[in-house]
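Researcher: Structure prediction, please.
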Amino acid sequence: MLKRALHEDSPEEPPSKRIRQPDRLSSLSDELLLHVLSFLSIPSLITCQRFAALAGDSELWKRKYYSRWVWPRARRIRQFKQGTGTTARRSIEYSPRVSNWFSHGPLTKVGEDRNWKGQYRLQHNWSRGSCRVTEVEVAQHPLAPVVVKLEHGVVFTADAENGLRAWSIKDTKTCLATTSFAGVGDGDGVSGAPTAVAVTPDDQKRGRFDVTVGFEHGGIAVYSFTSGLKGDTSFELRLWHPDSAETAITALASHKDFILILSEDKVLYLYQLSRQESKITPDEQTHILIASLVANNIQSPFSLSVRTTSTHAIASVTYTFPRIGCGWSVGIQELYWSKEGGDLTSRLATTVDSQYIGSTLAERPASPSRPSVFESPSTQTPSLSYTQPPTSLSYSHPYLLASHADNTLTMYLVVSTVDKLAIKTGRRLWGHTSAVSGVQVSPRGKAVSVSTKGDEIRIWELEDVISSRPASKGALLGDRSVQLSPEPRRTRPSPFSVISRAVERQVAAMEGRRGISSEVSLSCIKGAVEFDDEQVVVLREQQVGTQLLGCYDFT
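Model: Predicted structure follows.
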């Protein structure tokens, strides 16, 4: 039986072809094509393969970056929300000069062409929590805790066994430089194990950093780290001070010529360092003790910071303390002095007043002497009451964040002017499903928090939290964070592994005979989380004692 033809009416005629539209775009100049492409959406711009060279133009993506990430932030600023005049509108219009954008000056570097498409992709990945994760082994069964600091893509680790190390997490996770603590303190006392580390960019263009390390016997060592373009990276000991504190140093902060130290016996030291160009020994470096304060009733965790303004320098320490009637509270103390050599002023603010509904912020009088935080509060109902101390604190002016074991965080805004210091009412943030062990915040209002077991890391945009208005004071705010959704983990062999893989397998086998799984199992977080513009670093510890750095890359 014959089959029916597909086209019975005209079986011999071929199907009609689609009429091809004339190409009118190819005849246009590149300037006109860029103007046409500027009206496309991001998905259409990415799939525009015919004009791939023009679709990836940096100036085109620079405008897209401004429209997506700079303009919404400018609208949230109160002074521009309230401004209705022509001047207020023009001040937030697009400008090709990045230095005119809000807090985007660091994106402009002299002599460097910025890849704005890559910069847009970086911010897009941050907003969605998309990243690549790798794990690097930094210590095996360390005798003392490993301290970590991340600064501009360089990770600095310090421990008693391996000394001070710097390595890059961008280029194959290679170790850049290392130096031992064995010779530090000879003749002047024993250095001991490192307990804290702080990093300050000295000359970022040349890859120079000042690394300050605090030890368990109270000494501090300042190293100069230089990352050369040809791989000639090294550490150079610039200062060794054996008796900075009488006990172990628990917290450090540095800013160019200043170092802020908090010892285990709760004594705060503020030093000023001199920068001399001549070649002198580390013992001959000049360091002057500016102030020393003693506290008796404060508790960990602590957060130290040093910042400068055009006229003043400010050293801050945030801490926790118990208060009858409102549980655990947070306090901040500032050492405030003029760069021209003015008198040093000490002032204090706490969250005691803000933990009561209807109370106003009480301004504390500034006094050179150490003020007391134990003053009788007004009799009101507590709004934010905590029965347990915070698990961690992070302060980067004006944001103060506290993490708690009840799966929440508390955000405070610190008002610090020449005339006053105050802490505004806190707001609860929730989103974690387990206890929060570490939190880190930047001056731009971006924060990263991590759960106790490290299985949940969240990114917070605190400017969005500020712009929103909760229904009541102390209300919980949800859906304000993004959880990291990394690609499958890739565990890379460390180029500076402290033991061989054979020994590691033997240790795992021994633990397996004791009833513990020999598989990789992360038990807890050791140390605070660190992050910069491109990555997040979290220090983890396996059940067998191995210290791992989880590096989350958003580029």
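Model: The first strand starts at residue 130 and ends at 140.
Researcher: Thanks, that helps.
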